[in-house]
Structures are given as C-alpha cells and as structure tokens.
Amino acid sequence: xxxxxxxxxxxxxxxxxxxxxxxxxxxxxxLGYKVAAEAGDINEALRLVQxxxxxxxxxxxxxxxxxxxxxxxxxxxxxxxxxxxxxxGSSGLPEQYRDRPALQKPFxxxxxxxxxxxxxxxx
Length: 123
Prior knowledge:
This protein is α/β, with parallel strands linked by helices. The chain has helices spanning 18-30, 42-51, 69-78, 109-122, and strands at 10-14, 34-39, 56-60, 62-63, 66-67, 82-86, 102-104. The mean pLDDT is 93.
C-alpha cells in the first residue's frame, strides 16, 4: 500500500517504546513517508520540534509516564498537524486535544495511512 499523492511528506515520531517506534517508522516508510526525526522522551521531543522541519507528527500520548501535551502545544504553535497514538482510547487524550485524530494501539498499516492522509488534508 502506498500513500496517495501525499507520499514523500515528512513525519516527526514520538514514541517511548523502541520496538514500537521502529515498527511505526517502518510502516511510515512503506507508506511512502520520510521520518524526519524520532524521539523517545519528552525533552528530546521538545528539542526536536524546534530543530526539525516536518509535515505532520505522530505522538504517543504517554511518554515514559509523562503526558505529551507540552510537545503537542509546540507543534500546534508551529501550525503542523499531528496525530495521537494511544492504547487508552480517546478518553486518554489530553483534554484540550480530544478533537484531534487518534490511532488506537495497536494499529494496522491501513489505519495509519488513512489517518495521516486525513490529517494532512484537513491540516
């Protein structure tokens, strides 16, 4: 499966579980996206948001026991779309971001592709 018309876009990925991060990075590449940067903790993610250009971000909601909100706030300020990845369902999203798209972990390649495409189209 390849992304329709949106391949080549860059993705910032924040996920604390190394194996999951590697799996999602592989899925993104299979869909035709480029991983611009990856972070495994909040401080690294905050630094990379400011230092990296990307088209969309995928954010794990709970990163090493900390809520991703400070990172989401910075990305929102940059005007980039972002998607949450969570094992907690939409009720696990930070309250101010419950209107944002979310992928329920574990997710499949097709769901990832469709969610990214929708988020990029709507901004």
